[in-house]
Amino acid sequence: MTKDHRAKVATSKRISNPGCYPTGFLGLMAPLVRAGLVPPEFPVTVNAISGYSGGGKGLIAEFEDKGATDAARPYGYTLKHKHVPEMTRYAGLAHAPLFAPMVGRYAQGMLVEVPLQLWALPGAPKIAALRDALQDAYAGERFVMVAGEAETL
User: Fold this and answer.
1) What pTM did the predictor assign?
2) Is 20 a catalytic residue?
3) E-assigned strand segments in the chain
4) Vertex 93, ends 92 and 94: CA angle to 5°?
5) Catalytic entry in 1, 20, 102, 129
6) Are 65 and 122 in contact (CB under 8 A)?
7) Angstrom distances, CA of residue 69 to CA of 66, 73, 127
8) Which DSSP symbol is given to 23?
9) Contact 99/81 with Cβ under 8 angstroms?
C-alpha cells in the first residue's frame, strides 16, 4: 500500500481487503512497476501455493483426509481466477498476469513468486535494482522486511 493509498483508506467510510494471493503478488510487483523496472505492458507470471484452510469446508475435509496422498495440486486451469482483476489493477499492469495457483497439504501459509526474465526487461536491470526498489518501497514499514543480498544467495 502506498502512503497515498494509506491516507485514502484512513479517511474512507468503506474499504475492502485484498485477497491473500493479491496481497503477496502486489507486495512484490506494485513497487517494481511504480519504480519503472517492470513496464505495465510486460507479460507477468505468478506462481503461488497456499494452505488449504482458505478453501472452505470441502477442501479442508479433503486435505485432512488421512488417506489422501497428494502433497499439492494446481487449480484455476481456466486462467480466470477471481483475484486476477485486482492483481492487474493495483499492480498497475496493462494486461492480466498469468496466474498459476496451487493448494498444498498444510493448513495455513503461502508462497508467491513472480519470476522475471531480467534480460527481457527494459535496460536489463540487475537483481540489486529490484531489491533496491523493494527496500525503498518498504523503508520504515513495520511489517515488511526485504531480505538483503546475503540472505538470498
Assistant:
1) 0.89
2) yes
3) 45-51, 72-74, 98-104, 110-113
4) 125
5) 20
6) no
7) 8, 11, 38
8) H
9) yes
